[in-house]
Amino acid sequence: MASKMNPFTFLQQVRAETLKVTWPSQRETVISTLMVFAMAFFAAAFFFGADQLFGLLIGLVLNVGK
Q1: DSSP code per residue over the chain
Q2: Which regions span the lipid bilayer (predicted)?
């Protein structure tokens, strides 16, 4: 069972651990954000195109008998 901890001690430990984190620079953050938006755009464009193509092909196959 966990022992009780003083809230002040806990906050000191949290602060000490936070100081150990390597935070990204503003430039790295901006570049990563732009890359995520670009990849999301390309994925959306790809899936839109694939959906349109499959819709066209299925429409051609199903309308053959008419």
Answers
A1: -PPP--HHHHHHHHHHHHHH--PPPHHHHHHHHHHHHHHHHHHHHHHHHHHHHHHHHHHHHHTTT-
A2: 34-62
**Both tokens assigned to 11:** 């906050």
Residue 4 has phi, psi (to 5 degrees) of -75, 140
What are the sequence ranges of the domains in the chain? Answer: 26-66
Cβ–Cβ under 8 Å, residues 57 and 64: no
**pTM: predicted TM-score of the whole model, two decimal places:** 0.63
| Distance in angstroms (rounded) separating the CA atoms of residues 42 and 62 | 30
pLDDT by position in tens, the chain (length 66): 457 778 899 999 999 999 999 989 999 999 999 999 999 999 999 999 999 999 999 988 888 755
